[in-house]
Amino acid sequence: MSTKLYVIRHCRAQQGLTLNDPDTPLTREGVQQAKLLGEFLQRQGVGSTDNLLSSPYRRACETANIIAEKLQLSVSINDKLKELNLGNVSRNEDIGAILAELRVHFEHPEKKFPQGESNHEVQQRVSELVDQLLRGGEQQTHLLVTHQITMTLLLQRYDARFGFETCMELTNPDVFLIEFADGEVQQIRHIWT
């Protein structure tokens, strides 16, 4: 059986109170991007019989809801799609130092920010979701609306070339298509330009 997995990074969001504020909404531009994203996915052949899951974070939910409206889908919220928990890292900290530390986390996936989550833990939880979807049988096309680091770590599970640099190059929004045959990855394509 063949399965398509559209891995989608949420559209442009406002700056949150914290680096990983779950309540950050989309900007006006982000709302327009989500509408265009819905049209794009419709042209890809995604339709009302497909499955749309979203991170519980507001910016991802808003993106998913706009897509769902265009494609006549319902949205299921799934905690496994939330972003890497950065723990007690504050927006007031030097972003350069945070990014340097994040680079180290990609090299050493067990490392984590204080009170946070490791890259390994994120990759494990999102991989569990994908494995569950692949075993599910009936649904053959799934859309996952998630975040920058989580998206990269999911892609890295299937292709080790995805890492810190790829993560930093992702746009808001962004879309990769992973195609499976009998549970095995056939190809990964960057389809959003």
From TrEMBL:
SMART domains per the UniProt record, alphabetical: PGAM
CDD domains: HP_PGM_like
Superkingdom of origin organism: Bacteria
Any Pfam family matching the protein: His_Phos_1
Name of the protein this chain belongs to: Histidine phosphatase family protein
